[in-house]
Amino acid sequence: MIQNSKTGAAFIAGGSLAGAGVSATVGGMGLAGGFGAVGIGTAPVVGAGAVAGAAVYGAFKAVAVGDAAAFGAMGIGAVGGAGFSSVVGGMGIVAPKIGLAFGIGTVPMASVGAVIGLAAYGFAKLLDESEVKETSAQLFERMEEKVLQMDYYNAAVIELGLFLSGEDLSQKFAALEVEDELQALKAEFASAKTEQETVTSNLQLPETWKCVKTLKGHTARVNAIAITPDGNTLVSGSNDRQINLWNLKTGKWFHCFSGQAEAVLSLAISTDGKQIASGCIDRKISTWQIDKKQFLRTFFYSNSPYSHNGFVNSVVFSPDGRFLASGSADKTIKIWGGYTGNLKLALSGHTDAVLSVAISPDSKILASGSVDKTIRLWDCTTWKPLEIFTQHLAAINIVVISPDGHTLISGSTDTTIKLWNLYTKELVCTLTGHSEAVLSVAVSPDGTILASSSHSTIKLWHIPTGNLIHTLAGCRPVAFTPDGKMLVSGGNGGTIKIWSLQGLNQLNLDSLLHQEWWEVLGVDPTTQPQDVKLAYFRLARQYHPDINRYASAKASMQLINKAYQQFQAQLKF
């Protein structure tokens, strides 16, 4: 029994490896038909190889024991394949690298169905012999994970080529020769810049983001960050009820404002860089003098000891310094004197908690996002409502306005990001890619890059095209420095990450690995091995060069592999 199960596993593993070899040799492939066209990456080919291996094993067992059930499984699969062909219609497979193109009719699809049926029989026999109490799907997933960990599969991943503008730029990337190959690719991109300027600039191929520093000072999750206009000081607010000040150039902590009764939820810095405003769970807004490092005032209304009747989720200074706006769980937006702190008026209209407020660069429009799934625009001169956007399907967690004042950007619990034209009030596009609620967004000073974050992932987008250009292991909140060369984000366990925009010629895996393995994989040091493995597979799929067209994907994949190897090594001690 045990020997037979090992034989069956060998068939499946052999098929998987054959699939990886085919993918590496053939390169990018695709399916085309009446339904359109879709790409076929390495993972599907590996899976097909595993199925083929299981089918061979099924045939082997059927012949050996004379089991008629195998022929029944083939018949069911053939009928299913023919039915699929009749529904989908004509299809074809194309592989540009080797000049392959051929059609798939009903008969070939019936044959494919028969093979799949035989593979199912093979899986079933393998389960019977191994006495493993798991489903065929669970077994297949386990076998796929084993293949993914094998050195030759990792090598195949790193050797996969890029397809750019129809040209085959496939190269072999030996483990210790990545830098030379990246330089060669960079030279090719530079020579093609005249003809493909739009493509290369849109994809930001010559640059990548690298975590250069992790700040540790808070004892609980960081909810808000803000950066002074001169780019020298970073301010952070946390569940630990502290507001910390950091030298952004050195990463050194240099002051703490305390006194909040509860967690700090939001922060804002005045345009002149002199004041900090904080919004807290204790329903109060407080301001602090940065240069003198002293408390200024708490904002009160009427005879109340509070600023709002609910959590203060968002605060923002107007660019002209005239007022400060705050959004609260009490469903209102309040407008306060920027210098006096006196309440000017309260805006009502939202039917649930206001989670975010933003003001246009000319201080003429205020935008607010709410749990009620709406975004409202307000005229900052008359304070009358201008527009209501209702296209999101869940709470709007964050709204920002681009530096040029043309675009409103919203992030929602429905996992999408939407871009709106503030002049025409039209929805420009919807960005999809997050699998969790989008909790924070930031726009680079030149208005070309959008950073969005969830509980565990940061994504970078090219705004003019909507292309996803990079994925980072970090979390909310996010903010760009005034020069756009650094991105600041939240991290695990109360940490703050500083990301630097690097040229590919500066990308060095050894220097990147000054980070601990858990920082690279985006987990805590105490995370269970199975969860670390899942994090590794998730990152591997994100940075798979056949999926991620970013130029540094191959180097990033090697970094992820090395971090996982470090994790595996420590398990032996």
Automatic annotation (TrEMBL):
Stored Pfam families: DnaJ, WD40
InterPro entries per UniProt: DnaJ_domain, J_dom_sf, WD40/YVTN_repeat-like_dom_sf, WD40_PAC1, WD40_repeat_CS, WD40_repeat_dom_sf, WD40_rpt, WDR55/POC1
Domain J: 516-572
WD repeat residue intervals: 215-252, 257-298, 305-336, 347-379, 389-430, 431-471, 478-509
The keyword Transmembrane appears for this protein: yes
Transmembrane stretches, start-end: 34-57, 69-94, 100-124
UniProtKB keywords: Membrane, Repeat, Transmembrane, Transmembrane helix, WD repeat
Alphabetized PANTHER family for the sequence: POC1 CENTRIOLAR PROTEIN HOMOLOG, WD REPEAT-CONTAINING PROTEIN 55
Protein name as it appears in the record: J domain-containing protein
